Structures are given as structure tokens and as C-alpha cells.
Amino acid sequence: MAGLLFVFCFHSAVIAQDTTRTSKDTTTGYPQQDIVDFFKSKFKKQQVVVDTLIKGKLPNSDFTYTILPAIGYTLQTRLAIILAGNLTFKTSQVPNQKLSSIYGNIAFTQNRQFTVPIQSNIWTKNNKYNFVGDMRFMIYPQSTFGLGGANDLVKDENKMSYQYFRFYQTVLSEIRKNLYGGIGYMLDLRWAIHEDGYADGHESDFAKYNPQTESVSSGIAFNMLYDNRANAINPDKGFYSNLIYRINPTWMGSNSSWQSILLDMRKYFQLSRKMHRVLGFWSYNWLVTSGNPPYLDLPATAWDAYTNTGRGFIQGRFRGKKMLYLESEFRTDITRNGLLGAVAFFNVQSFDEWPQGGFKYLQPAGGVGLRIKLNRISNTNVTIDYGFGKGGSHGLFINVGEIF
User: What is the pTM of this model?
Assistant: First the structure.
């Protein structure tokens, strides 16, 4: 769930090799600082010591967590009250062990939305297996704007509401170094689906496509993953590629039989050895290859796993059977201690037209952002971005962890 602004922050760490808070960044050589260090230096008498409570549970391991009661604002939620938690750890101390993470939050929003997402990325010892999970429960009033790329932000707004449960779980096994293959199960269950329709009364694309009050997509996913990034939360170099082929047969409970392919690729270039300066590229391509998924299961803006595609546009702004997406971002430190950073980004997306098919429109967006170090040990940032999209769209986009 994106959209966090600080109210109060609390985190702790148990690091076998480093139990102090004065470590130096291996790239810059300067002492690093996060938001907790900053506040502790200003309010020393209010420090909370909890390390001893954790050491007995996870000895000889890297273990950090963050608890963040917060308020937030995004285009799709407006004002939100959020309790977020982030846990990062290593399952062993072997060299090159990848960092595992679990993220979850509970949010109540001004748009009467209630969301509970829990996402996990767990690496076993020596990175032999990778367990990737995504669970969500949502009560979610949200506007949709029809299919394809020719929709108007005001004229084609169709207010909808529904309840949603997602369960995705994938197990990947190492084929060779950094290359994994595996299988998973994916379930998307929606009920109490309701639309208000367009203001001028003309028939909506939802009504034309396949109006449903309930929908089920249940199927098997085959995965191929390559990932040589040391830290997925805030990569400074490396390459990531994930190919997912999803099959949703009716015998597994799906309303209709359909299939899709998702190809997610990310590349990072470290531009400086003296400071954190990175150029990143992200390609996200989500294609329905056969059948007709439920309307709300179609590829759509910001409906990737972490709701991050399309900064500059509201979630669900564009939707179709095929989605092509490309983004680039430049990241740099503002302060030598890593507490503050900045980014500039640009993205473009295109969706096929319905029902005729074919790509006709490009939807560009871009913006700038601020980074605040939430946890220097896991290198987790709070990202505060302002994006501008085609057609007068603009807004604030806030997250925990880099966008890609």
C-alpha cells in the first residue's frame, strides 16, 4: 500500500557483525544515518532500547524491523491512516546471502477503503529456494475509466466498489547461480461488485465487457526468475527479470478460462563509487494471451504487485487486455550520510484498444521525488514523489522502499 507520511517511527536491529548505529557506508565511506538516528540525536532521553528482546530469538542473524504508524495521501485513497510494518533478515550468514523481507500494513482511507496487504520474499540458505507471497484483503471503492487509451479523466469516470481477496504463493528453486524456476498458485476473488455508471448515462465499458457481481480467477503460474541484485529493497546495481505464465482453467474455479504472460525486467547502473548515484530502467509487460479475464483482473495502471506502475496517474486509470510499460529513474544522495536523497523519473504506458485490439496511444508521465532513509541497515527509504501525467493528471505518490 503506497502512501505514507511520518507520524511516528520505531525500528530495531540485531546485526551479528555490527550492533552499533555508527556504521559507514561501504561505497561512500561516510557515517550513515537514518530517520531513527536523527530523532535519537535530537531526543536522547526518549530512546527505546529493544535489542535485548530480539537477540534471544534470532541469534547470529541479521534482523531488522520497522513499525510505522502514519498518515498518507494518494490519488486513489485521498487521506489514509496506516499502520505499516517492514521486516528484513537473512536466513544464514553465508557469503552473498540474499536479503529476505516481509511487508504488511493496515489502512483506512478517506474514500472508505480498507486494505490489508501482506507481501513476502523469503530466500533460504545459500539462496537455494525463493518463496514469494502476496496476500490481500480489500474493501475497495475505486473509479475505473474504461478500456484502452482514449478515455477521458472526467467524462469516463465510473465509480465502482467491491471486496477483494488475493492469495498468490510461488516457490522457486535454483537452476544455477541467480537463475530460478518454479510454480505457484494464484487466486483473485471479488464479490459485491457494483458500478455507478457514467455521469451522462451512456453504457460503460464494464457493462459492455462482462458485468459481474462476483468474479473468480484461480490458476497455476509457471515462473522463471533471474535476480543478481544484492538488495531488492534499494538496488544500486544488477539485473532482475521475472517471467510468469498464468493458466486459469474453469476446473480450478475460474469464471472463464484464460491465460496471461507477465514479463518484468529491471536493470540498474551504479554511476558513482563515491556516493549513491544510480540510473534504473524498468520494463513491465502484462499480456492476456487467450480468453476473457474478469474486467477487474485485466492488466491496469498501478495493479502490479506493489501498485507502483504509472506514477502520475491514478490507479486503474488505463486498462486493457495488453499492457506495455517502460520507466527510467535517476537516484542520488543529497546528504553524505544518506539521510536524504532525490530522484527524477519518467514513464510511458500503452494499452490495446477494445474490442478491436491494437496499440494506438502512448500515456507518458514524469516527476521528481525526495528520499528519506527509514532504516540504514536494510537501506530502506521512504519515497515521496510528485508525478504529472498526460491529460492533466497529477498527484503525490508515497511509498516505503524504492518504486522498482
Answer: 0.86
